[in-house]
Design brief:
- Two copies of one chain form a homodimer.
- Chain A is built from 14 helices and 13 strands.
- With about 425 residues, the first copy, chain A, is α/β, with parallel strands linked by helices.
- In chain A, strand 5, helix 7 and strand 6 form a beta-alpha-beta unit.
- In chain A, helix 4 crosses helix 5, helix 12 runs parallel beside helix 14 and helix 13 crosses helix 14.
- The interface between A and B is large, with 90 and 90 residues.
Chain lengths: ~425, ~425
Amino acid sequence: MPTAIPTDKAYAWEQDAHDNLAPLRGEFVVDDPNLIYLDGNSLGRLCLRTANRTREVVEREWGQRLIRAWNEGWFDLPARIGAKIAQLIGAGAEEVVVADSTSVSLFKLAVAALDVQANRPTILTDDLNFPSDLYVLQGAADHLGNAQQVRILPSSDGIHGPSDALMAAIDENTALVALSLTTFKSAFTYDMAAITRKAHEHGALVLWDLSHAAGVLSLDLNAAGADLAVGCTYKYLNGGPGAPAFLFVRRGLQGKLRNPIPGWFGQHKPFDFDLVYRPAIGIGRFLTGTPPILSLAAMEPGIDLLLEARIDAVRAKSLQQTEYLISLWEQILAPLGFTLNSPRNGALRGSHVSLGHEDGLRIDRALIEEMQVLPDFRYPDNIRLGIAPLYTSFADIWEAVDRLRLVVTQRLFEKYPAKPPAVT
Amino acid sequence: MPTAIPTDKAYAWEQDAHDNLAPLRGEFVVDDPNLIYLDGNSLGRLCLRTANRTREVVEREWGQRLIRAWNEGWFDLPARIGAKIAQLIGAGAEEVVVADSTSVSLFKLAVAALDVQANRPTILTDDLNFPSDLYVLQGAADHLGNAQQVRILPSSDGIHGPSDALMAAIDENTALVALSLTTFKSAFTYDMAAITRKAHEHGALVLWDLSHAAGVLSLDLNAAGADLAVGCTYKYLNGGPGAPAFLFVRRGLQGKLRNPIPGWFGQHKPFDFDLVYRPAIGIGRFLTGTPPILSLAAMEPGIDLLLEARIDAVRAKSLQQTEYLISLWEQILAPLGFTLNSPRNGALRGSHVSLGHEDGLRIDRALIEEMQVLPDFRYPDNIRLGIAPLYTSFADIWEAVDRLRLVVTQRLFEKYPAKPPAVT
C-alpha cells in the first residue's frame, strides 16, 4: 500500500532521473512543455517516427508507387502488425490481425462464438464493461435469433468487477463470457487466467476487450488459454485517432469459427474472384474488406517502440507511477474531498487512476481550461488520469496533482457550470 | 458509335489542349512522366492537397491538439464528408456517412434491409457483382436465419448485366435487389431508376454498390428514389488506400432500419455511456465504432476537387475518353486480336474499358514491366483500363494503346509465363 512517499517535486524529479524508460519521451512529439497530458488511455501521443512513416506511406507509397504498393507491403499490413501486437499480448504471430474498428471486430468474434454455442442461452458480462461493447453483444445476440440473452452482472461498488458473482454464474448455460479486461472507468482488471479456466471447465468461451490493457499490462493470452480478444490500438499502442483494432483468435479455434462478415480480404484466394466464399486458412479469415492503409501504417512505429521498451518494463513503471499518484492523492487530494475510484490493489489495477469529487465535472473543466492538464472525464464523477509510461513522467503526475490541488483550494472551478461539456 | 477518330498522337494532344478539366492534373502528384496510370478505378492518385492535409491531421491535430482534436473537427468527419459525397451522388446531406469498409457497410445495410423484409425469401443479384459483395450478402442472409436465399442471376455474355431477367425476376418474393451499379470487370452500368421503380412496385428494396460509379458518373439517387447504397472512396474519389466507404440510406427509411452492429458512434448520446443502446436520430445510427481518422481526413481533399470540377463535366469527359479509347481499340487493337469486353454503348458504360486477348495476362505483365503502363487485370482475360478524368489525359490513352500495340506486334509478352502474378 503506497504511503509516506514524499510529496515534494524534487522526489518526482529524482524518480524521473532513475527511470530507464524516461528517454523514450524523446521519441514523441511533446511541443508544449506546460501541457500535462494524462489522456494517453484515450488517444496516445504521436511518435516522431509515426509522423515520418505517415509521410512515407502517403507521399512515396501512395503518391509514387500507386497501386503497386499493395504488393510492396500493404497487403501484409494486417498480419504483419498483428504479429507485432501478438508479442505484446502473449499470443502467437498467426493469432492476431488488425483491420476494422473495435466494435466491428467485437461483433465478428461475438457472433462467431455465439454461433458455435447456439445451444447455450447466456452471454455473461458486467456493468463496468464499455457500453459500446454491451451494444455490440446485444446486437450479436439479437441477430443470431438463437434466443441467447446478454446478462449484465452488477458491480457492487462501481469500482471492482463482480468477479465472485461472475465465477458463480459461469455454468453449462454460459455460451460466452465477454468482459473488458481492464474496465474503462476504474481500471479494475480481471484475472484472465482464472476466468478462462472456469469458463473452459464449463464449456464456455471467453472474449476479452483488451482496449485499456494492451500495451501497458504484461499479458499472456496463450498462458491463460484465452479464446478470443479484441483491443484498441489508439490508446497505449499510440496508433493514432481511430486506428483499427486488433483481434485475436486462439489457433485451435480458428478453423471452427466462421467470420459472420465474409469479405474478399478473408477469402482463401481473393484475386481468383470466385463467386463462392471460401475462408482463408488461419487468422486471415477474420478479415473482411479492404483495410484503411493510412491508419494501419501509422500504427506500426508506436508498436515497435513498445516492443523496444519491453512490456514488462512498461508495466513495472506503470505500477510504480499509479502507486505514486495514489500516494499523492492520499496525502494531498483526499483531504480536499477527492475519492479514489480505482482499485487500491495494484494487481487489480490497469494504468489509469480515477478520482471522484462532488464537483468533479467542474474541477475537470477548470483543470483543462485554467491549468493545462488534459485528463478525461467519465460520468458521474470520474476524473480519469491516464498513465502512459512511455512518455508520462513522475513530474507530470506531481504537476497534475498540484494543479488539482490549486483548482480546489483556489475555488477555480466555481465559474464552470455543473453541466457536461459537449464531449470530453 | 465511335469511328473514324484520328489515330495519330497529335489528335490526342489537341483534345487535351481543348479540355477544360486538363489543368486539374496539376492538382495531383504525377512524378513520373513516362508512367501511364490507368488504374485510378482501383486506387485513385494522390492529390497534392491530400498530402498537405495528411501532414496537418497527423502533425498538428494529433501531435499538438491531442484528444482535443476530437471536439475540433474529428467527430464531425463521418457526417461532414458524407454530406460532400452526397452532393456527388444526388443525395441529401443527411443521408450519407463515411465510416467502415465497403464490405462492412454493405453488411450493415443488407442485414438492416433483410430484417424488415423477413417475410420475403429472395435476394436478387448477378454474377457480375463484385464477389466480396456476394460473400457479404450470403453472410447477411445466413445470419438472420430467415431462410432468405441469395439468387445470382447469370449474365448472358459476361459483359452486360442481366437487366431483362432481373426485371422479370423482381416480384413479391423479392426482399432485396443488391447490385453493383457499374460492374467491376466490364463497367456495364445498370439503369438505377428503372430497377428501383420496378422493385418498389413489388415492395422490394434496392441496395446499390456505387464503388465503380461514384465520382465519375452523374448520379441522382434521390431522383431515382434509391433506398440504400454503399461505395468505395479510394477509386474515383481519390481517398487513399483502403479509405473507408460511404453508406447512403434514404431519409424516409432511416427510422425504420436497425443497424445490426450497434456501437457507440451510432448511439443517441455516446458520452452518456448508457448501458442500453438508443440509436441516434437519422443517418448517424448507421455508424458503429470509432472511425479511422487519418484515413477519413485524407479523403476530403479529393472529394473537394471533384465538387470543384463538377460531376457532370467529369462524366462528359469520361464518356469522351472511353469513346476515344474504344475507337483506337477498333482501329489499332482489334486487328491484333483484342476484344472489347465492355459495353459499346456509352449509356451502359462506366469509366473503365476492359480489353480481352487470348494472351491477356502475359500482355498485361509486359505492359507493366516493359512499358510503364499500369492497368489492372481481372480474370480470365480482362485488361482493365481505368479512365479517371481528373488526371487521365487523351495522350495517356493514346500512349497506352500504342504500347499495347508494341507489346503484341513485337511479341514482348512471350517471355512471361501464362500464369497469374501473385496479385494484380
